[in-house]
Amino acid sequence: MKTDDSSSDASGWLSRLTNGLSRSSQKLGQSLNDLFTQKKLNDETITELEDILITSDLGFTTASKLTKIIKSLKFNQEVTVDEVKATLAAEISKIIEPFTQPITIKTEYSPHVILVCGVNGVGKTTTIGKLAQTYSFEGKTVCLAACDTFRAAAIEQLEIWGNRASCHVFSSETGKDPASLAFDALKHSQEMGTDILIIDTAGRLHNKKELMDELEKIIRVIKKLDNDAPHDRILVLDATTGQNAHSQVESFLDIINISGLIITKLDGSSKGGVLISLTEKFGLPVHAIGVGESAKDLRPFNPSDFANSLLGINSSK
Predict the structure, then answer these.
(1) What is the pTM of this model?
(2) For FRET with 90, which of 5, 63, 146, 189 sits at 20 to 30 Å CA-CA?
(3) 3-class secondary structure, 313
(4) CA 114, CA 117: separation in Å to the nearest integer?
């Protein structure tokens, strides 16, 4: 998943990211402003800082690590809020840097199969459409498999995105066996010499056993055609759910060996900090983040840009 590297495009994305994270940065920034206005950094302010970071969805482990760093650098000194923000942004970037990993399309596979999971409502189908549009723009041939066969709306939505991306969508009547559709989609994609096949799946976590059986069957049958498939197993998470995203990761890890995350709806959330606690807790790479409705609003994850935007720091990078 690549993007236009032009300075205007990069600047536009950074502006959208900053605007998208404005709810998170305003919440965190105001709390920091209130705390560090003409105050020394002492035990009291350190404790308050840790509380602020925890309530900003960074999680206890990350908050504790960051406050210890701030304490070691500036303890018992007067500090400005800008100094605190800059230090926090730099340290957050270091924490999440190891988990930065764009999706890598492997050319030895034809097609490279991406299985996408997520509960209903997280933006899973839209994310698949954005990926398809991005890859098509790069000149790759893409097919989509609408394997959330029990939701007519999901099938229709994927077909709309398929038309936008000029890519073929394998679909069926509502209620067809998802594994059978996935098998047919991969078989025909192989025959067509397609570069990428993206498989949409159901997200009915209220019936975990049924969902587990369904996903396991999809994987089992496509392995009959390609023993290495799926080559990526991506979980899509909605940033607005905050710490509830942790339980979603745990639930899907019980079902499937997730290989990476995509975080959506950062533009509608004051809980952007949850991305940091997710990487620290689960050690899963973040492939991309989304801050809007267009395909350009889904981008590979950049830790420095994210950290600066979360703290409300303007960057020219």
Answers:
(1) 0.89
(2) 5
(3) coil
(4) 10
Residue type, 29: G
> Cis (ω within 30 of 0) for the bond into 102?
no
CATH class of the domain comprising 4-99: mainly alpha
Q: Report the chain's C-alpha Rg in angstroms.
A: 21
Where do the CATH 3.40.50.300 domains begin and end in the chain? Answer: 112-301
Q: What CATH code would you report for 112-301?
A: 3.40.50.300
Q: What is the pLDDT of residues 59-105, one digit of tens each?
A: 899 999 999 998 887 666 777 888 899 999 999 999 999 999 999 99
Record the tokens describing residue 140, joined without a space: 């790759």
Residues 147 and 222 sit within 8 Å (Cβ to Cβ): no
- CA-based nearest residue to 254, from 226, 303, 215, 293: 215
* Those residues with Cβ within 8 angstroms of residue 24's Cβ, 6 or more apart along the chain or in another chain: 56, 266, 269, 270, 271, 272, 273, 310
> Residue 24 and residue 85: Cα distance in Å, rounded?
13
Q: Cα–Cα–Cα angle for 310, 316, 317, nearest 5°?
A: 85
Which amino acid, 118? G
